């Protein structure tokens, strides 16, 4: 198994109830696999599928990006900087 | 001034002066400053105050990346962007985008582009705190 740090922001954090957590995944798991797992645990996240951005180690990534032990993964709900 | 960074997420009030001083060079005849200011309504509903949250470790580099995108499109000089996080009262500045260029057209276009891209990809979120006490993420 590999361990990754998952970061939650804004509406995601409200749904999940925490700002970050460590998660254990099968080797070879992708960002999309992890999102699927989270949606199973927190069904209210499903509304974000298809309209969120992904980051691994603070750089934009895609659902196909493979995760590695120690990675930091962020699921980025639709952003709203500015006013 | 020694701790000035052109791309910054901060919980302190924003001041345009250091950004203008940073971007201005002798070759640039135009400096455009855009300030996004917390307003007291959204979609006709009264707002009491705003709060902002950012993925700060990533947002700073994304702001720098957006400036590079603008530089690839227009002949511009330096760019500086500061974005506030935390609670903002109505009338406080949430974001400053400052762009220098030899001529005004490029400076205006690049400043508008940078602001548009911030709203598309910068990992920053606004929470509207309505006057009736409810709160809502804009996402």
Overview of the molecule:
- The complex is a heterodimer of chains A (about 80) and B (about 140).
- Chain A has helices spanning about 10-15, 30-40; strands at about 1-5, 20-25, 55, 60, 70-75.
- Chain A has a five-stranded mixed beta sheet, covered by helices on one side.
- Chain A has a single domain (about 1-75), classed as Roll (Ubiquitin-like (UB roll)).
- Chain A is about 20% helix and about 30% strand.
- Chain A is built from two helices and five strands.
- Chain B is an alpha+beta fold.
- Helices cover about 30% and strands about 40% of the residues of chain B.
- Chain B has helices at about 15-25, 55-75, 105-120, and strands at about 5-10, 30-35, 40, 45-55, 80-85, 85-90, 95-100, 125-130, 135-139.
- In chain B, strands 3, 4, 6, 8 and 9 form a five-stranded antiparallel beta sheet that branches. In chain B, strands 1-5-7-2 form a four-stranded mixed beta sheet, with helices on both faces.
- The radius of gyration of chain B is 15 Å and the shape is elongated.
- Chains A and B meet through helix 1 of A and strand 4, helix 2, helix 3 and strand 8 of B.
Record keyword descriptors for this entry.
heterodimer; A: 83 residues; alpha+beta; Ubiquitin-like (UB roll); 22% helix; 29% strand; globular; B: 139 residues; Aldehyde Oxidoreductase, domain 3; five-stranded antiparallel sheet; four-stranded mixed sheet; 32% helix; elongated
Strand order across the biggest sheet of chain A? Answer: 2-1-5-3-4
Q: Name the structural class of chain A.
A: alpha+beta
Q: Strand count, sense and closure of the main sheet of chain B?
A: 5 strands, antiparallel
Note the quaternary state here: heterodimer
**Span between N and C termini of chain B?**
35 Å
Topology of this protein?
The complex is a heterodimer of chains A (83) and B (139).
Chain A: E1 2-7, H1 10-16, E2 20-25, H2 31-41, E3 53-56, E4 59-61, E5 72-76
Parallel strand pairs in A: 1-5
Antiparallel strand pairs in A: 1-2, 3-4, 3-5
Chain B: E1 7-10, H1 16-23, E2 30-37, E3 41-42, E4 45-54, H2 56-73, E5 79-84, E6 86-89, E7 93-101, H3 104-121, E8 124-130, E9 135-138
Parallel strand pairs in B: 1-5
Antiparallel strand pairs in B: 2-7, 3-4, 4-6, 4-8, 5-7, 8-9
Helix pairs in contact in B: 2-3
């Amino acid at each position: 198994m590999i361990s990754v740090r998952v970061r939650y922001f804004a509406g995601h954090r409200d749904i999940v109830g925490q700002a970050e957590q460590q998660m254990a995944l099968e080797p070879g798991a992708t960002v999309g696999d992890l999102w699927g797992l989270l949606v199973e645990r927190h069904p209210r996240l499903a509304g974000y599928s298809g309209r969120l951005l992904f980051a691994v180690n603070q750089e934009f990534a895609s659902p196909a990006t493979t995760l590695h032990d120690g990675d930091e993964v962020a699921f980025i709900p639709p952003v709203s900087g500015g006013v | 001034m020694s701790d000035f960074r052109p791309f910054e997420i901060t919980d302190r009030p924003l001041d345009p002066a250091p950004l203008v001083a940073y971007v201005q060079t002798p070759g640039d005849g135009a400096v455009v400053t855009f300030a996004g200011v917390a307003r007291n309504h959204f979609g006709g509903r009264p707002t009491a105050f705003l709060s902002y949250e950012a993925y700060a470790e990533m947002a700073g580099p994304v702001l720098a990346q957006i400036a590079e995108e603008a530089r690839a499109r227009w002949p511009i000089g330096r760019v500086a962007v500061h974005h506030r996080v935390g609670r903002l009262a109505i009338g406080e500045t949430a974001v400053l985008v400052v762009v220098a260029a030899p001529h005004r057209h490029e400076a205006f276009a690049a400043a508008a582009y940078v602001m548009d891209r911030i709203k598309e990809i910068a990992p920053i979120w606004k929470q509207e705190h309505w006057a009736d006490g409810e709160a809502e993420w804009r996402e």
